[in-house]
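Q: Joint fold for the lines below.
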Amino acid sequence: MNGHFISFEGPDGAGKTTILQAMVDHYRKRLKDQLTITREPGGNPISEAIRSIILDKENTEMDSRTEALLYAAARRQHLVETILPALQQNHVVFCDRYVDSSIAYQGAGRMIGEKAVYDMNLFATEGELPEKTIYLDVPSELGLKRIMTNRTDDVDRLDLEKLDFHQRVRDSYLKLAKEYPERIVVIDASQDLETVKGDTIKILDQVIK
Ligand SMILES: Nc1ncnc2c1ncn2[C@@H]1O[C@H](COP(=O)(O)OP(=O)(O)OP(=O)(O)O)[C@@H](O)[C@H]1O
Ligand SMILES: Cc1cn([C@H]2C[C@H](O)[C@@H](COP(=O)(O)O)O2)c(=O)[nH]c1=O
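A: Joint structure:
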């Protein structure tokens, strides 16, 4: 089997974590030890340490460009230490967020500029992109409602941003999906969970043969 790099993207509360876990449950038997599950920011000790700085609710002073640089730094380390070695061993890599998150959240959400953030990430990643990106799309109000009402884990610094921030993030994702239709597949994540799972499996079955 060849390695496959698959990312999962979406606004906060879209259901990425839930769907990614469902995909692990679905494909684990088929892939056995050829499956790597990882996340951004994070995935290894250095990138997880950067994650805790970025998402700490106490860090209200953090400048937007500092934030963008930290995400890119975490991504660089994650790529060279975790993703590329797994692909070299022909693993399927399920990655919770990647470059599209920075374009949407820092480029559009923080209004640094999508192109500027893309260019900075080109330096960080040397152009390495996922083969397929599952973009789980929900209206921002629904995503935020899910987070505030259902979640038991910590609400982080970005979850706490206002509605217009999250709307800019969603609009940017939808723009990216139009720009890269071969790579980014939009799934309507406002549907019930079983339907979202089924739609995701249909796409991934075309990649993981
Ligand atoms: N299709 C769905 N229908 C109803 N509830 C859902 C659906 N998908 C996820 N949820 C619920 O919404 C909440 C948020 O889901 P989840 O943590 O998977 O989102 P997320 O996209 O990973 O969020 P974040 O990016 O902020 O970590 C959870 O309680 C989950 O059970
Ligand atoms: C990779 C990446 C992430 N973010 C934001 C998106 C979320 O609000 C958090 C990560 O938390 P999750 O619960 O693990 O999804 O960070 C971002 O703004 N930019 C990025 O590049």
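Q: Anything notable?
A: The chain has a mean pLDDT of 95. The longest helix spans residues 64-88.
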